Amino acid sequence: MSDEEHHFESKADAGASKTYPQQAGTIRKNGYIVIKNRPCKVVEVSTSKTGKHGHAKCHFVAIDIFNAKKLEDIVPSSHNCDVPHVTRTDYQLIDISEDGFVSLLTENGNTKDDLRLPTDETLLAQIKDGFAEGKDLVVTVMSAMGEEQICALKDIGPK
């Protein structure tokens, strides 16, 4: 037995994984997939026949869910692809700061102040106009792979 002390440093973060594996052949249109380390929504899937090397290939065309860029990937249908854990959460909008951050009310009554206004012009205008008119607004925040962004807006009436 050795009498030395061993210290291990962990560089990994604890908690749930940002993605989970799924067989490429089972991913369908409107599903999610990770392409080039970005979470994407699948808009088109085409599968080629098995070739002389024995693998059918899936050709994915997908749109990045945060910056709307189009990405493509070709994967053998029997191989696993990473699929992001995508969650949508509704928060009530409390305030919009001058530097572009929003203050949101969570379900347990706390505030969430680390989100920026969306970059989508129409959604941005709807949020700013509705807030200026004093309406009660609920924003939907989509989060995947450690990123969050406001993706939708609901008007729940005047304050």
From TrEMBL:
Molecular function per GO: ribosome binding; RNA binding; translation elongation factor activity; translation initiation factor activity
Isomerase as UniProt keyword: no
Residue ranges annotated for the Translation initiation factor 5A C-terminal domain, each copy included: 85-154
Ranges of compositional bias, category Basic and acidic residues: 1-12
CDD domains referenced in this protein's UniProt entry, alphabetically: S1_eIF5A
Region of interest (Disordered), residue spans: 1-21
PTM section of the record: eIF-5A seems to be the only eukaryotic protein to have a hypusine residue which is a post-translational modification of a lysine by the addition of a butylamino group.
Keywords: Hypusine, Initiation factor, Protein biosynthesis
Signal peptide extent: none
Pfam families from the UniProt entry: eIF-5a, IF5A-like_N
GO terms, biological process: positive regulation of translational elongation; positive regulation of translational termination; translational elongation
Domain of life where this protein originates: Eukaryota
SMART domains named in the record: eIF-5a
Family: Belongs to the eIF-5A family.
Biological function: Translation factor that promotes translation elongation and termination, particularly upon ribosome stalling at specific amino acid sequence contexts. Binds between the exit (E) and peptidyl (P) site of the ribosome and promotes rescue of stalled ribosome: specifically required for efficient translation of polyproline-containing peptides as well as other motifs that stall the ribosome. Acts as ribosome quality control (RQC) cofactor by joining the RQC complex to facilitate peptidyl transfer during CAT tailing step.
Protein name (database record): Eukaryotic translation initiation factor 5A
